[in-house]
């Protein structure tokens, strides 16, 4: 240990805490200084630890370097070279680039001496790889990950949030397709992440001058694209729908990447359809498709090696990393017992379980008005306003547990900034939001003050707009729910969290809380990120330890839930009765067993045992016999994988024997027929109507509500603008809450729920009558019947932008005689639109990276 090491480190930690408190106006002055002599000694300590073999030593070295860099002064001219070579020595070449990289020459600046230059060069070269015709410098972890993807066919990746996993996955995907033709599939959990990955891929390909690889965001029977080098970026729902569609298949798959794999665990303890879809998608690819390489990736998965071994057998390998590439620091506040001086305790939480504390004056009434309170008051907004207004340029994300609270917080913060914006960009953006959604939309006054909210009820084109505007520093603060937790990388140095609550009586887990904090400080943007947690006690009450990053032991399969409800599950399966609300805790397992038996016949027992459903051979044989008696075509069951085959059979028999409402043949005028079909479905499949709509279309209120949803669906599928879909002349919007409610209905019930319910009926009609009316549901899901609009949406253009583009007086076409996309003409078309001043500047902004 270096002489006086502990004393010097303690001073450094407290100095950073005081500087942070001063920056945010929480103290009036600092008590410590960091002079040249102390800084030099600290650098020597960092250098000493950089050559030690233990991970903790390297983390300590990073900690010292990052805190010195964060608190540097202009006179420390040699700091840049010294820190960068220490970071390179501990394997963080990418972090070193944030300190000492010359953008003009695309190389490191001087390291201070010939010997250090030589050492750093050798280290960098050992971590350099070729991607296409370019070269990239990697961290030690990234190099191990790159090499493992070359070596192994089944790979699990675990690392802290900012370690640069996504960077490697994107570059390796492109590298593969520069060497061979084939298909690569990225499966990600959200539309926001689809857009981010797609944009990152396209940006990298432009950088490398690669033009023969296509990136698409959907795959279906009416896909308008073709090619021999394709990257699909899909949600698990889109991927599984393609897998279960008999007319569509993924062929020549070179690489399957499943990011945010931790989401799969929910199948082990609850009936969560998104998690189940992800789990089943991986199972289908693993068992039924020939895939050269499969990579699953997630943050801080403690048992990643056991997971890949269990899932893929002995060929499964893993790469893990404990050393972060960005220093993430948490700060929290709590009451001091028996303190009568109006003081609070502010704690700094650093890696290696290091904490430092100072007292601050409670100028914002945290003790009386905020700490320990379950509801937000304006005092919280006063405090947040103080914090964000003192560091606007760094980028701020404020976490809230609910969408309504996100709106209220964004508006409350915006109201505290006086005056109206004179920024032409913001004025234009507000007009764009009014024109594409509604003049009373609550996002508009927030945008005026460079603030936005981001959650599931925000229209997709505006979510894209918020993400890009924040990344390009047009807005500086985003108030978000968990929508930004799922891997979306935004350059936010600060994340503010009041408490871990996400709903009534619900909290984030410690693991989720760790990942949320990891959104602060992003690789290649900030060497230090700050997570500021307002109420430390609320975290303690939720069993969340702020100082220690929590890891996850990932569980796979249905075994725990099956064992807990085995008797009920087996009785229901043997009785061959349709699932109902009485089976709600195990309904998904019952459906899964029936579908596995139907799809894989005698092999089905091995498939269900593989995922922890240990049914005896005798019971399975009875289940198999019962599903083999069903008359519904198997193709219908496979295309509706989460429907009970017995219920599908009941619908099929009913269509054959009873009078059903006429099915619509076109999107125009389809609202009334769809309404009648949904009412008929309520009598045969009430479990699914409740699941996907949560409305009874046969009672008085429910009938009116479903009728309005069907009108929304017709207009949406007909390509009517979002603004007119949610605000028809017969049912005008009266307040801002109406806008949120209608957009939420559009996202959850119109685009998702109605097609889910109607698809089996439409497919049965097509099967019986040799028609193709089910394509109409695809129009509702995508948002247009127009071939060119759908082609642009499939490419990743937001729906509202695609409609605006096709409303321009354009002469250029990009479809061939068969109605499929000509890639060369499409590139020319996109370029012409990007430069077309008749298109609103914000629509052009949304497609400028295509």
Shape: globular
Tell me the total number of β-strands. Answer: 21
Write out the strand line-up for the largest beta sheet, numbering strands in chain order.
14-13-12-21-18-15-17-16
Q: What is the SS-derived class? A: alpha/beta
**Any low-confidence stretches, pLDDT <50, length ≥5?**
none
Helix content: 40-55%
User: Which band does the percent of strand residues land in?
Assistant: 5-15%
Distance between the termini: 53 Å
pLDDT averaged residue by residue? 91
Gyration radius from CA atoms, angstroms: 28 Å
Give a short account of the largest sheet. 8 strands, mixed
What does this molecule look like?
The chain is α/β, with parallel strands linked by helices. Helices cover 50% and strands 12% of the residues. It has 37 helices and 21 strands. An eight-stranded mixed β-sheet has the order 14-13-12-21-18-15-17-16, with helices on both faces. Strands 7-8-6-9-10-5-11 form a seven-stranded parallel β-sheet, sandwiched between helices. Strands 1-2 form a two-stranded antiparallel ribbon. Strand 12 and strand 13 form a beta hairpin. Helix 1 crosses helix 2 (36-50) and helix 3 runs antiparallel to helix 4 (79-89). The longest helix is centred in the C-terminal third of the chain and has 34 residues, at 736-769. 50% of the residues are buried.
